[in-house]
Amino acid sequence: MDSVTQAVLGAAVGVAVMGRRTGVWKAAVAGAVAGTVPDLDVLVSHGDPVLDMVQHRSHSHSLFWLSLAGPVAGWLLARLLGEGALRWRWSLAIWLGLVTHPLLDAFTVYGTQLLQPFSDRPYGLGSVFIVDPFYTVPLMVGLAWALRSRGSPRGLAANRLALAVSCAYLGWGVAVQQHVETAARESLAAHGVAAQRVLVSPAAFTSGLWRVVAIDDGHYYEGFRSLFDRSPHVAFDRYDRGAALEPAMASIDAVRRLQAFSHGYYRLFERGDRLMISDLRMGMEPNYLFTFEVAERRSAPVALVPPRQVGMRVDLSRAWPWYWQRLAGDPVSMRR
User: Fold this and answer.
1) Percent of the chain beyond pLDDT 90?
2) Are the C-beta atoms of 237 and 250 separated by less than 8 Å?
3) Which terminus of the chain has a smaller tally of CB atoms within 10 A, N or C?
């Protein structure tokens, strides 16, 4: 999730755990810091943009490492604040502030390596968008109430209620995702598409509009489903996945990493003499957030180039009206 949401979640957790045992502002600030710390890995450069992508949400998001660090940090904070009698409570608050960060991230589609150092598998449920005001705003309201009331019983109750609402919203997202996936699979089968993989994830800022990506041997399919659609079927557009480029690009390290990290949701294509790969999970046709140049065709075999991320260009004059129309259930297409 975005940094603001993670800080607010950490602060709300800190306030909920500490209650009136310490200053509510102290609990909020400490929780916000704990909720932000795992994302400091973005400050570490791994040498190229592909490595930076696949190593983000890695060791700093490990439940194992954070569970080791949380109690130690809590004890040190209690000692620094002169609240040694609350060291176990502070340890719980900081630990929860740390581990709720990667657990929330795992609900997004990006991929979070929760089980480092034992496994580098990236987990990404994809049931909530990385920025979703329906998740964040209730947390902000509950936390603001607790802070403004200086930790009054009603304020603390509002903060706990906001945490419960945010958890319920995550559950809602999972339930709707399963509903949309069922409709998508039925629609694909009705059109004779034997999909090997089907990914359902929310469109930007909402759980009311969902994007579906399906993969078969040589193509990928993109469709959208709004909760306000009147038709039970999902319409799909078909695109070439670049299977003909697989032999030329299979041995490229950046390609292998992205293939694994994206769980197979990728496309290969050429732009001039450059060979490219896109992660199909983030963005929408034809604009994908993570698109990289990885090789060129000036020699045989292809010559490797330092991976370079290609900027994403979105025509907001078309995309924004389409977004609101499609969210409202109007079956308009973005395809030219």
Assistant:
1) 82
2) no
3) C
Alpha-carbon gap, residue 3 to 209, rounded angstroms: 23
Q: Where are the alpha helices (DSSP H) in the chain?
A: 3-18, 24-36, 49-55, 63-80, 87-105, 133-148, 153-190, 246-249, 253-261, 316-327
Helix (H, G, I), strand (E, B) or coil at 284: strand
DSSP 302: P
Residue ranges of domains in the chain: 3-173, 191-318
What is the C-alpha to C-alpha distance for residues 157 and 163, in angstroms, rounded to an integer?
A: 10
Q: Is the pLDDT of residue 304 over 80?
A: no
| Position 267 confidence tier, pLDDT thresholds 50, 70, 90 | very high
Strands 209-215 and 197-202: antiparallel
Dist CA 195 CA 198 (whole Å)? 7
Non-local CB neighbours of 71 within 8 Å, separated by 6+ positions: 91, 94, 95
> Locate tokens 């945010």: which residue?
166
Report the 3 state secondary structure along 120-189. CCCECCCCCCCCCHHHHHHHHHHHHHHHHCCCCHHHHHHHHHHHHHHHHHHHHHHHHHHHHHHHHHHHHH
- Dump pLDDT digits (tens) for 119-149: 999 999 999 999 999 999 999 999 999 999 9
Mean pLDDT across the chain: 93
pLDDT digits (tens, 9 = 90+) for 185-200: 999 999 999 999 999 9
Give the chain's radius of gyration (CA, Å).
22
